[in-house]
Every structure is written in C-alpha cells, then in structure tokens.
Fold this protein.
Amino acid sequence: MSFLRTSPGSGELSAIARFLTAAEAGRHRLHSFMIVKNGSVIFERFWKPYAPNLRHKLYSLSKSFTSVGVGIAIDEGLLRTDTLLSDIFGEEFERLGDRIPERTRRMTIRHLLTMNTGQSYENWAENNIEGFLTAEVEFEPGTAFNYNTLATYMLSAAITRLTGESLAQWLKPRLFEPLGIDAYWETDGETGINLGGVGLNAHTEDLAALGQLLINKGLWNGKRIVSEEYVAAASSNLTPSNHSANSIDWTLGYGYQFWQCQPKGVFRGDGMFGQYIICEPETQTVIAVTGNAEMQSVMELFWTLLAEMKTPKLASAELPPERSLLTVSAAAAPYPDFRAVYEVTPFENAMPRFPLTSLSIDFSAEGECLLLMYAGTAPAVLSLLLNQSGWYYTAATYLPDRFFSSDGGYYGRAYILGEWSGDTFTAKMWFNETPCLDEWKFEFSPGRESVTISYRGFAYNSRFEKVGVGLRISA
C-alpha cells in the first residue's frame, strides 16, 4: 500500500528529533521508523542497508497478524473463541487417544489467543500439532498465562485445517491485498502450515497498515476487514501477563496476541530484537519499527515520544542527520600479504554456530581476502570474498543456509566487509532482511603461527565469544 505523506507539526518534529537522538545515544540500532497519524505518514526514516522496498523478519510480531486472521475467521463463522481444539483436530484426538492430556480436551481457541493454555513449555516436535496436543498441561486452561509461540502455531494450523489453505494464502484476499501488504510467511517444513507465531517477513509500511486497521477498529477505506468487537477484545487486557518480571511492559496484561503498554490506552504487537506496531487510539497514532534494540529501554523512549508529541510548547530540537549502519573503522589498514590454513580446535563449552575444524585464509590477491571455514569434510560453512575498499553486497555466505528469503527459498544475501587492524582480521556480514549483523574475528599471533577465532551474533549489544584456536598447518 502507499499512505499519503504529510509533514509533522513543529512540536511533533521536535519530539521525533529528541527520540532519534536518544535512541542513537542509547546505541539502539533502529532499521526503520515510521509514524502514521490520522491515516498519513508524518515521518519515516530508514538506516542503510535497510530500505522501504525490503521485507524484514518480524519474529513474534507475526502473532499480531495471526490474531487478525483468527478474527476474520470468526467473522466468517469458521470458528468461535470457545471452539474446542478437539472440534478442529478431531483426527488427531482420535488417533492419539490417551496420549492427549485431559486438560487439553478442554482447550479452546481463546486459550490459544490469550496464552492461557496451561502448558508451561513449548513441545516443538517433528509433527508440531501432535507435539502441542500431547504436551503436559500443568494448569487448567484459562487460569495461567504462559507465553507460548507453539500456541500461535496452532491457530495457524487451525485455519489451514478449516480452509485447506495456509494462513498466508487464506489472508491474501481478506487482509493482505485490501491493505496492500506484500508479505512472505515461512512454513513448517512440507506441511504447508505457516509458523503463525513467528516467520512473517514484511515491509515497514505493511506494519503501519495493520496498525492503522486496528486504530480504525477494523475498517479500511470504509470497508470492514475484521469486526470492531474482535479488535476491541484483541487490544484489551484479557489476562494478567508475567512474561518478563524485569520488563514492565510485558507485565501489564495481554489480549489476543497484543500487549498492553504503560501509557493508558496504548497497545502493541512486538517481536524479538525490536520489531513493533504501537497503536495509540486517542491520538490516531501508529508507530511501526524494525530494528535490533534492547526492547524495554527503547519502549521507554517510545512512551516519551508519544507524550512529547502532545506537548504544545516543546522546546525545538534538530533532527540528527541520516546515518548509514555500514560504517568502516578508522583503524582499518591495508590487507597483509599472506595465506595460510589452520587446524581449528573448538574451546570447551564454547558456543560456536558451527563445529569448526579448519580455516583457510588467503590475502594473496591485492586488496582482497578469500576466507573459508570448514566443519569436517562438509562444504565450507562460511565462504567469503572480502575486500578492503568497503562494504559490498553478495550472496551465499553461509552453507548450510540459515535464513528464509522473501521469495520462499533460503538465502545468504548480505552486505559484507573485511577489516584488518594490527594482527586482527574482522569479517562482518549484515543480512539486511533480518536484524542480523554477524561478525567473525581472527586474532593472529605475531608470527601468524596460530589464530584465535571469536564470534559475535546479532543480538543487541552482544559481545565477541571465543570459539576456537587454530594452529597453522600450511602456507
């Protein structure tokens, strides 16, 4: 879709400027940030390599889209919130028999929506429907909140069982096409069931569109998409929540896959590492965000932003300049002239992504480095041709592939950069359809007879962890 674009008021612009300055000072990596007010985009910013035309992994923000899908299914009479799971998955209940706990036989769609299944763990399995249905149920359904992504998977599976289509297929003419949402939803292997609780990849403007639908109480351009009654219930406080005792905004109550927030009347959907749809009905404001941030502290900045946007005489502030996340270290130096192969021994209790056994590194081409890491006799699990001239876009960096692409396959597309400084070489890979910035650091001994390998994953403010040491076996 495409929202109308208007300009914020001077006070709103100052509030936005203060927010962006505080977010950068807090070292939050925002990838995209969009504010919609009264149905028009009043501000948007993307940080390179992220861009409006790129989808972004949403993690648990996917749950909010699933919830709206369930609401539409209720409107169409396919199910009710009090529909028993046994009425939908009758074949499994009959076949599994006594393996299904008695409490599961009393479980309803509402229990899935509100995370009140009574289960205290997620029993992911080769057959996830069976895994969920046979899991122990510690509490009577409806009496205890416990965040459960597999419960949302079951909502997606219910839509597929009732319609014969995946949730994404079924939603296409009912939600995605009317709102102009161009999304891709990962599936559970060959079952065709969308993951529901995770796995949605969408544009920032797609997030804003869903938020606007909710602000409009289920209407889109005058057309009813989902009932007002369902939106009111989904966005309200239907159950106490205790998802994170140290983070207040996960303890204020939960609806149908939406969280209550500190500012009165504000609700949100959110996903790991900082994916957000924030709705403030009072001021008809929607905030859509993708990023890699510490989630509670960045939300505190959102609440200040919403308050300051309503402050009539807010002191003026200048917008910080647009920045690229693709920076090059001032300490970067020209590549050395050497090549070597190292036999790698992982550190005990290290948490490497792969069980590395050897490293091949070749700086023989001027200004380039061919970097290969192996696990046993398998193909290289990391294969990079890096250069010292700056970031560039490439593909197939990891094998086996780790991430889902927006077109249904796997991908390893990333902006990559190799930096040499002192006796240390750092390979950086920014997967710009995800929050992921992966970094490998290779610290060489003065004679380069050995190398210590460290890895830093993509989580907010993560640190390098040493994963192995390599001894040189050939030049």
Observations:
- Residues 339-474 form a domain with the Lipocalin fold (CATH 2.40.128.20).
